[in-house]
Design goal:
heterodimer; A: alpha+beta; Ubiquitin-like (UB roll); five-stranded mixed β-sheet; globular; B: alpha+beta; Aldehyde Oxidoreductase, domain 3; four-stranded mixed β-sheet
């Protein structure tokens, strides 16, 4: 399984902070994004935001990063701390 | 030392921890607070969310980077999370060094990088309801300027 996390605006828009998906071969951050976007119109809109960021195992990465079973993948908007 | 916490901090206590080493000639601290306006709206408070685990990791990386670039002795980074009201302290950065220029530069670097790299998100409670803050292009520009400056 792959653990998926959502933070801040995304978490609110999707009304969920985490879910699990099954791992498949040659999975990437982009494929997970597309898979989630296929859920419905709301998810399609949220997951297609230009500013969306992705982290794999707590490190920000790009959309071609490979993802394997046991990984933690997080989606979130640009950060605004400080 | 890195702390992500809900509770408030006392600057005097943090200063004591920073200032007890006589090899340091400089202590520089920064405190970020909840201010009363943003983008034309009155702000009554804010709620801070973060990504537990990743936050501490990123702050650790930023701290390590500061140590690479400047002769620093101590570094303290505290960032609060949860609900904060107007005027409350949000973030503390404290650094010590034998020299003031290194301490000033490192403190500024740390807060600039924290703002653009650490996974915190602010939601403001304004006179027109609550809204998530948008990241500022000017903040990422400052962060990029540091990267350019430090690699040259």
């Amino acid at each position: 399984m792959i653990k998926i996390l959502f933070f801040a605006r995304l978490r609110e828009q999707l009304s969920t902070d985490s879910l699990q998906i099954s791992a498949s071969e040659n999975m990437t951050t982009e494929l997970i994004r597309q898979q989630l976007a296929n859920t419905d119109d709301l998810w399609a809109k949220v997951m297609s935001a230009d500013s969306l960021l992705v982290a794999v195992n707590q490190q920000i990465t790009d959309w071609s990063h490979s993802v394997n079973t046991g990984d933690e993948v997080a989606f979130f908007p640009p950060v605004t701390g400080g | 030392m890195i702390n992500v916490q809900q509770k408030d901090f006392v600057v005097a206590d943090e200063y004591q921890k920073l200032a007890d080493d006589n090899q340091d000639g400089a202590v520089v601290t920064f405190v970020g607070k909840v201010r009363d306006f943003n983008e034309g709206l009155g702000v009554q408070g804010l709620s801070l969310e973060h990504y537990p685990g990743m936050t501490e990791r990123v702050l650790g990386e930023i701290e390590a980077e500061a140590h690479e670039h400047w002769p620093l002795n101590k570094v303290i980074i505290i960032h609060r999370v949860g609900d904060l009201t107007l005027g409350e302290q949000i973030v503390f950065i404290g650094v010590t060094s034998p020299h003031r220029k290194a301490a000033f530069a490192a403190c500024e670097f740390l807060i600039d990088f924290l703002k653009t790299k650490a996974p915190f998100w602010k939601k403001e409670l304004t006179s027109e309801g609550s809204k998530w803050l948008e990241a500022k292009a000017s903040d990422s520009k400052i962060s990029q300027q540091w990267s350019t400056k430090l690699t040259n």
